[in-house]
TrEMBL record:
Annotated protein name in UniProt: SDR family oxidoreductase
Organism of derivation: Streptomyces himalayensis subsp. aureolus
Record InterPro entries: NAD(P)-bd_dom_sf, Sc_DH/Rdtase_CS, SDR_fam
Superkingdom of origin: Bacteria
Molecular function, one GO term: oxidoreductase activity, acting on NAD(P)H, oxygen as acceptor
Pfam families in the record: adh_short
Organism ancestry: Bacteria, Bacillati, Actinomycetota, Actinomycetes, Kitasatosporales
Length: 268
């Protein structure tokens, strides 16, 4: 018997990286998943995992796309127990000074559309179902949800907003729906960049990353499966809401590093 037997999940950002790993684990734990992504890789995921997965290719920044994902869960399994808002893009750690002023508005709209508006739309599309099932919402935050220098100005601001969204929704939806988040540090995956800044997908793990982690290892994408499963389980996390679970390989307790972004290293 799996930890998620009988649970029906709508999961965005399911096509690659942590999302793909968690969906695979959810199915192994007995869940049935509507796997949502802007890329058609979710269709291959469905082929691999069988009829426990229904793929939906859509842009999660649209209300219609989120409604379609929710409808797929209802039509296939008749209920929704968990919404996981995992879709996200990066700004390539771009500082404010390096973003041309004329591009800032479009870049903000694009990145916040995926990282903040999309989970809000997804939650709104399924909230009535979750109240009925006394289910849960899980949003993917980041080390950057509570720290500087985990990304650029847009990414860090967006992930701080995700932390606020977790807390506010937990307040608004209590006692019927639990709302929590996961704040990963690093994982070996490729993140889609902000096209308004001319960015494409890039590796999230840079040279030297392992050496700055207190645990001295870059965790695999599977390392986060247990936390997402814990938060989705109605029995294992029944007392948790409004919580952002940090899993950052110790980054937040690393100690003193550079004193500021414009401070040159000694000798430069």
């Amino acid at each position: 018997m799996g930890a998620l037997d009988g649970q029906v999940v709508v999961f965005t950002g399911a096509g690659s990286g942590i999302g793909r790993a968690v969906v695979t684990h959810y199915v192994a734990e007995g869940a049935r998943v509507v796997a949502v992504d802007v890329a058609d890789t979710v269709e291959q995921l469905a082929k691999e995992l069988g009829d426990a997965v229904v793929p939906v290719v859509t842009d999660v920044r649209s209300w219609e796309g989120n409604v379609r994902a929710a409808a797929a869960a209802r039509e296939t399994w008749g209920r929704i127990d968990v919404f996981v808002g995992n879709a996200g893009i990066t700004d390539g750690a771009r500082p404010l000074e390096e973003i041309p002023g004329e591009r800032l508005t479009d870049a903000f709209s694009e990145l916040f559309g995926v990282n903040v508006l999309a989970p809000m739309l997804g939650a709104r599309a399924v909230v009535d179902d979750l109240v009925k099932s006394r289910g849960s919402i899980i949003l993917t935050g980041s080390f950057a949800s509570s720290n500087a220098a985990g990304g650029g100005v847009l990414y860090t601001a967006s992930k701080h907003a995700v932390q606020g969204l977790v807390r506010q929704l937990a307040y608004e939806l209590a006692p019927d729906v639990r709302v929590n988040g996961v704040a990963p540090g690093v994982a070996p995956t490729r993140l889609r960049g902000t096209t308004s800044l001319g960015q494409t997908a890039a590796d999230s793990v840079l040279d030297g990353t392992r050496e700055v982690l207190p645990l001295q290892e870059v965790p695999d994408v599977d390392a986060y499966n247990g936390i997402f499963t814990l938060l989705a389980s109605p029995s294992q996390s029944a007392a948790m809401t409004g919580t952002m679970v940090t899993a950052d390989s110790g980054l937040s307790i690393r100690g003193l590093a550079r004193p500021g972004g414009r401070v040159a290293e000694a000798g430069e």
